[in-house]
Design brief:
single chain, mainly alpha, 3 domains, two-stranded antiparallel ribbon, 12 helices, about 60% helix, transmembrane helix, TPR-like_helical_dom_sf, membrane
């Protein structure tokens, strides 16, 4: 599922508040048919229905938004009407329907930013946030627009959640080195994007702390490991000392080799990274059938 309601609606800030969708890739951007005079936006029901649908969506009135976007789409062929329909479906957890609407918008206007952002969040909702983040980086990674940077940061945050496994009690946990690497890269990228979202910044900082803690080495079980280390060092030193006192170079070498081998085996057996101590299952991919709440 999506991280927050903002991931559905934030992209609409890319359009001017009064935009009715009458000037980009829609039927109402063309001249009148059969010599008729062009219709103004105030006379055309499409832009009016679109504006009402957008207002309803941003207010969380999904039924009203669905009706108005549907009305607009029925009077013209404009990509943002279908983006609106996709957003309603996505907010309700109807990911497949959302994808159909976003792809329809892209057929009408290839490269439309709202449609691309909507499609990326549908991928997040279906549990493929890592791929969505990579696609957004390719499309908008160099952009300075704060809305686009927000989507990049939020999608990386979702990728970090989805790539990890879960413990028996449902807590997120690392299960392999790749997860640590992905989460570390995601956290650094979120902080680099410098978005005006304190929640995202705190999440990135917390994620970095978890990665560092997960890579920290510990002795387990500590008491047995320390005792064996003392015995290994003592045995090696004893053999070296006996060999030195008896003038036996082979015994000295045997003491050094024995101590080194025992130390290596003890380190391999008892010294491990913290993340390995938490039993986890699989990767925590998001469910595709869940709606989201408003933040």
């Amino acid at each position: 599922m999506l991280r927050t309601w903002q991931d559905v609606i934030a992209k609409w800030r890319l359009l001017p508040d009064g935009d009715g969708g009458s000037g980009a890739g829609g039927a109402d951007s063309a001249d009148g048919v059969d010599g008729d005079a062009p219709r103004s936006a105030t006379d055309d029901p499409g832009p009016q229905a679109f504006r009402r649908g957008r207002s309803a969506l941003l207010s969380g009135r999904l039924d009203d938004a669905l009706a108005e976007f549907g009305r607009a789409a029925g009077t013209r062929a404009h990509p943002h009407d279908h983006v609106g329909l996709g957003d309603v479906a996505l907010a309700r957890g109807q990911v497949r329907s959302a994808v159909v609407s976003y792809r329809t918008a892209l057929e009408l206007a290839p490269g439309d930013r709202l449609a691309l952002l909507g499609l990326s969040q549908a991928r997040v909702a279906s549990g493929d946030a890592e791929a969505a983040a990579a696609e957004l980086e390719q499309a908008f990674g160099a952009e300075a627009d704060p809305v686009l940077r927000y989507y990049l940061a939020s999608t990386w945050c979702s990728a970090a959640d989805q790539v990890r496994g879960r413990t028996g009690d449902g807590a997120l946990a690392f299960t392999d080195e790749r997860q640590l690497a992905v989460c570390e890269d995601a956290a650094h990228r979120i902080l680099e994007l410098d978005v005006a979202d304190e929640e995202l910044r705190r999440a990135a900082q917390r994620l970095l702390s978890e990665v560092r803690a997960g890579r920290r080495y510990r002795w387990r079980p500590e008491g047995i490991a320390v005792s064996l280390l003392v015995l290994a060092v003592s045995l090696g030193l004893t053999l070296v000392a006996i060999g030195g006192l008896s003038g036996s170079p082979p015994l000295v070498v045997a003491g050094i080799v024995t101590g080194s081998v025992l130390l290596y085996l003890i380190v391999v057996r008892f010294r491990r990274q913290t993340w390995r101590e938490k039993p986890a299952r699989g990767a925590g991919r998001g469910a595709s059938g869940s709606g989201i709440g408003h933040r």
